[in-house]
Amino acid sequence: MDPTKWLFEGRRFRVERVVQVTPDGTGHEREVIRHPGAVTVLPRFDDGRVCLIRNYRVAVDQTLYELPAGTLEPGEDPHETARRELAEETGYRADALEKLAEFYTTPGVLDEVMHLFLATGLTEGTMRLESGEDIQPQVVPWDEALAMARDGRIRDAKTLVGLLFYETFRGR
């Protein structure tokens, strides 16, 4: 049996069927989504406010509150992706970008690694949305962002990770 078979290839990911051999020697077919990786950015103002975005997501047919994010281009450094996506989706530019963490988004089916950045020293600029994006920036106080995470208004995993990671490990 061929250990790997491509099932689908799209613009941003591909799906493969792979064979996982368990310790007892048995082979099990699994479908895996191969993704080039992505970034998410926590844009934090000097006064503690944070810039979220309202982003329509066709997969769930809902507009979600999220942190700005985007897919790595081939060979692109995650810091550059973070700068690009922050500017495109919010209009803001950052004087400083600090990598806080990296994590797998959905390791049961997907190999995507998400790089989490803190953006500070923000200055306003012009958004440059990609065709088809429906995004509106929303600047909220830090405590409000945490309340949104707690009460379920924020349902996006990368946003929950970003807010709670910062709150837990960086504090105020």
Your description of this structure?
This protein has 172 residues and is of the alpha+beta class. The protein folds into two domains: 31 residues, no CATH class; 132 residues, Nucleoside Triphosphate Pyrophosphohydrolase (Alpha-Beta Complex). It is built from three helices and ten strands; from the N terminus they run βββββββαβββαα. The strands form three sheets. A four-stranded mixed beta sheet has the order 7-4-9-8, sandwiched between helices. It has a three-stranded antiparallel beta sheet with strand order 1-2-3, with no helix packed on it. Strand 1 and strand 2 form a beta hairpin.
Mean pLDDT: 95
Strand order of the largest sheet: 7-4-9-8
Cα shape: globular
User: Which regions contain 5 or more consecutive residues with pLDDT less than 50?
Assistant: none
Strand content: 35-45%
Oligomer type: single chain
Proportion of residues in helical segments = 10-25%
Layout of helices and strands, plus pairs?
Elements: E1 4-9, E2 14-21, E3 27-34, E4 38-43, E5 50-57, E6 62-66, E7 69-71, H1 78-90, E8 93-104, E9 113-123, E10 135-140, H2 142-151, H3 157-169
